[in-house]
Design goal:
By secondary structure, this protein is mostly helical. About 80% of the residues lie in helices and about 0% in strands. Bound molecules: 4-fluoro-L-phenylalanine.
């Protein structure tokens, strides 16, 4: 069943790092902290941990089982494991969703690149907080700046993916993931050392369950899926390159734990600084790109050099995290094209990167000249994000769980995931995970 030429990750550690790299991204540093701010601090964190452990982790294992067993692209895996059936169309939709996420995700990745360059050149106004306030809206609404950042980010993604699994993805994540951890821990230490930061820690630790309604739970589940890169084939594709004797459960637990840990330390790096500055934590998506530059610039009144170093470290961390995720999205698309159309890797890449530019540019312009182009009040960027992270990822994860729970032979699943917890896993993905996903999904739509 295993084609002899298929690449493999060099070791368990590098495989787990690549998986963690896909999981840890803008979802952790940009999205998670503002969701915590919007949905009751610690209460949201508890909901998130419950969703991650009991729903997202089993879904992760399902995707990994399919990938490891079939050793193919997303579409090809369904074709291999359920020949002649309609399941492969679910694989096709996953690839499409991955492509759309890559396009708009690269816009946000481009912002971090822009902010990194600005912080390196002193352009984030250390010591001049009032000037820092308008930087984000000016940058995001400038077609030249936002499109340039987007294109550079997408190009960097494409170059890494072009190197393949071992020389591209493995090499890049092996270097960046440890640096990312060190940078974030240093930022947490710095943030906690600020006078008045205790309020931020209290906010994260003390749950306010009155703010956690059905939509809060739906957001927690959606965020868990987004953060673990589920439902769009990213986990499946990396698993298709894992060694035959790799233990799926161990990889899943490590990815889930490091992803959750990273989300919490991101909140711990941001919230204490927000509270120390007496600002509002629930400002939504602008938290990282508007509130933080203001905070860092205010600190710069007394210590401009330290402020510039902290800002640079922060946006470098976001950029690296975003890249380790975007490469997994593009890889899903590229592996599909290489396998199905039998084309060269660079050709497969162009096949997705060129349309990705065509979709990403209007997404980038959604914050400027195309701000008014809306449907139900949503801009093009919002529509892509809503469609993928609220609908396609959730339904995708549901399809993968149904496939493993009800379509694959139990003995085949067990062969890939044997261990003391197999019975629990199998029960969960048949009887608990699908209804739980449906209930949370539907209650959010009502
Ligand atoms: N998990 C990534 C994040 O938290 O930023 C986002 C992501 C990566 C989504 C890969 C989908 C994907 F296929």
């Amino acid at each position: 069943m295993v084609p002899s030429k298929r690449e493999q990750f060099g070791s368990s550690l590098t495989f787990i790092m690549a998986m963690a790299g896909s999981a840890i991204g803008l979802g952790n540093i940009w999205r998670f902290p503002y969701m915590v701010g919007e949905h009751g601090g610690g209460a949201f964190i508890i909901a998130y941990i419950v969703c991650s452990a009991f729903i997202a982790l089993p879904c992760f294992l399902c995707e990994a089982v399919i990938g490891k067993r079939a050793r193919s692209g997303v579409y090809g895996s369904f074709e291999k494991l359920a020949p002649g059936s309609k399941w492969k169309w679910a694989g096709g939709i996953s690839i499409l969703a991955c492509f759309v996420i890559m396009s708009y995700y690269s816009v946000v990745g481009g912002w971090s690149l822009d902010f990194l360059v600005r912080s390196l050149s002193g352009g984030l106004a250390p010591g001049r907080p009032d000037e820092a306030v308008g930087i984000f809206s000016k940058m995001a609404s400038s077609p030249l700046e936002s499109i340039t950042g987007f294109l550079l980010f997408l190009m960097a993604t494409a170059l890494i993916v072009l190197g393949g699994i071992k020389k591209g993805i493995e090499k890049f994540t092996k270097i960046t993931i440890p640096i990312l951890f060190v940078l974030m821990i240093a930022l947490v230490v710095y943030s906690l050392s600020l006078p008045g930061s205790g309020g931020g820690v209290k906010y994260i630790i003390e749950p306010d369950f009155s703010k956690l309604d059905a939509s809060g739970w739906a957001c927690a589940l959606g965020q868990a899926f987004f953060s673990m890169s589920l439902g769009v084939g990213a986990v499946l594709i990396y698993s298709s390159f894992m060694k035959k004797d790799e233990r799926i459960l161990r990889a899943g637990v490590w990815t889930s734990v490091s992803d959750t840990f990273f989300a919490i330390i991101s909140a711990l790096a941001i919230m204490p600084a927000v509270f120390a500055s007496g600002l509002e934590p629930g400002v939504g998506p602008a938290l990282v790109y508007e509130t933080l530059p203001y905070i860092f610039a205010s600190m710069g009144v007394e210590t401009p050099v330290l402020s510039a170093v902290v800002t640079t470290a922060f946006f470098l961390a976001i950029l690296m995290a975003a890249l380790t995720s975007s490469i997994s999205m593009l890889d899903v698309c590229v592996e599909h094209a290489v396998e199905q159309y039998k084309c060269k890797r660079w050709m497969a890449m162009l096949l997705f990167v060129v349309p990705g530019i065509a979709l990403g540019v209007p997404c980038a312009l959604s914050f400027g000249s195309l701000k008014g182009a809306t449907l139900f009040g949503l801009t093009i960027f919002d529509i892509c994000d809503f469609l993928c992270s609220n609908i396609l990822m959730t339904l995708g994860a549901l399809v993968f769980a149904l496939f493993v729970g009800w379509r694959m032979k139990k003995a085949d699943v067990q062969e890939e995931l044997n261990g003391p917890l197999f019975k629990v896993f199998y029960f969960m993905i048949r009887w608990v995970v699908p209804p739980a996903i449906l209930i949370i999904f539907i209650s959010n739509l009502l």
